[in-house]
Amino acid sequence: MRKLLLLVAVAVLAVPLMGKRPVTLPARSLKPRAEYEVNQTSANAMMHVAAQPGDFDIAGYDKPLKSRRETMLVTNLTDHDVDSLYITIDYRDLKGRQLHQRSLWAKGEIPVGETRLIEVRAWDVQGSYVYRYSAKPRSLHTPYDVTVTIDSVAVIDAKNRNL
Fold this sequence. Notes:
Layout: H1 2-14, E1 46-50, E2 56-62, E3 69-76, E4 82-93, E5 98-110, E6 115-121, E7 129-131, E8 142-156
Parallel strand pairs: 7-8
Antiparallel strand pairs: 1-8, 2-3, 3-6, 4-5, 4-8
C-alpha cells in the first residue's frame, strides 16, 4: 500500500514537469517594426521642414471601438508635395484628463492642395476606447477626445526629384 501511495505521489508531481522545454529565440535578431520607412532611392530628394499653423487642415479623425487603426483626413495647404508627416496625438478623456500622448511618422503622400486619408496604428491596444464622435457601440466603452498636431513634414524637393 505504501508503494502504491509513493508511486501515485511521484506521478502527480511529475506530470506538471512533463512537456516543458526551455524557451529559445530564433537565430535571427528581432527588429521592431517601423511605422515609417525611408525610401532610399528618394531619400536625397526629401527635406524635413517644420510645419507652420495653417499649413494643413486635419478633419475626419476616427477610431471605432476595438479598431486597430486610427484614420484622419489631412489637406496639404502648403506649396510643396508632402511625402510623410511627423504628428503628435494627444488623447484625453471627456473631463480633460490626459490618457496618452505620442509622436510618430505617418506615411502619406499628399500633393499640393489635395486631401488624403492618413492611417496609423491605434494607441489603444486593448480596444476599449472609442473616439467621442465615432459610431456609438452597444457594448461598454470609454469615450475620448483627441488633438492632432503636425510638427514637421518630409517634403519632396522639386530640384532634386529626379535623382
